[in-house]
Amino acid sequence: MTKRYWEDFEVGEVREYGSKTVTKEEVIAFGRQFDPQPFHVDEDAANAMPFGGLLASGWHTGSMFMRMFADNLLADSASLGAPSIDRLRWTQPVRPGDVLSVRTTVLSKSASKSRPEIGFVQNRHEVLNQDGTVVMWCEGPGMIQRRNPDATV
Length: 153
Description:
Number of strands: 5
CATH architecture: Roll
CATH superfamily: Hotdog Thioesterase
Largest sheet: 5 strands, antiparallel
């Protein structure tokens, strides 16, 4: 596939991609290392809590999203990273056995005023479970190399 530059992203474009099955072992391992709350690391404790079972950390969900995003969209783009995440929400619990995928929508794009070789693409990313329920969403700009930095926008 040809590398996608800033000029190739269209406002309103929607892409759906990825598939990641969440495992109990990964939930516990991530929780132990990065977010050691009982409902992330101890199945018995999690079952006794109002959540009714083991839950993936929101940061784990974000990490799984990032891997799918990197493998499916960033790998074929002239990505230069991202300066921020403007908004982030975890809207539903993620549990072992869930199968996650991502839907990315291009909200807007603009050329950098100070660095003509860079363009910004504002995206909304939605992480969905196997039922199509949005479990996490975030919005933020990505920096994408421009194919022709001398062109007027």
